[in-house]
């Protein structure tokens, strides 16, 4: 699935919904680190997407309780 998501998002990086689906998929397979990698790629590709930033922040808040880690 990673190859499919990577190929699709390389062609259509502005499809923010697929970034979320990709992050969710990675969360089921590999855990927190991969999800953060996907969200980092997403915010670089779709910098002005409020939805991506909200999903990223919600994930960070639910994963970490330390505000300094979340802000970084």
Automatic annotation (TrEMBL):
Q: Which family does it belong to?
A: Belongs to the PRP39 family.
Q: What is this protein called?
A: Pre-mRNA-processing factor 39
Q: Does the keyword Repeat apply?
A: yes
Q: Name one GO biological process term.
A: mRNA 5'-splice site recognition
> Mind telling me which residue stretches traverse the membrane in this protein?
none
* UniProt-listed SMART domains: HAT
Record-linked InterPro entries? HAT, TPR-like_helical_dom_sf
Q: Looking at the record's lineage, which domain of life comes first?
A: Eukaryota
| PANTHER family according to UniProt | PRE-MRNA PROCESSING PROTEIN PRP39-RELATED, PRE-MRNA-PROCESSING FACTOR 39
| One of the record's GO molecular function terms | pre-mRNA 5'-splice site binding
GO cellular component terms, alphabetically, are: commitment complex; U1 snRNP; U2-type prespliceosome
Keyword annotations of the record: mRNA processing, mRNA splicing, Nucleus, Repeat
Q: What is its main location?
A: nucleus
Q: Where in the cell is it found?
A: Nucleus
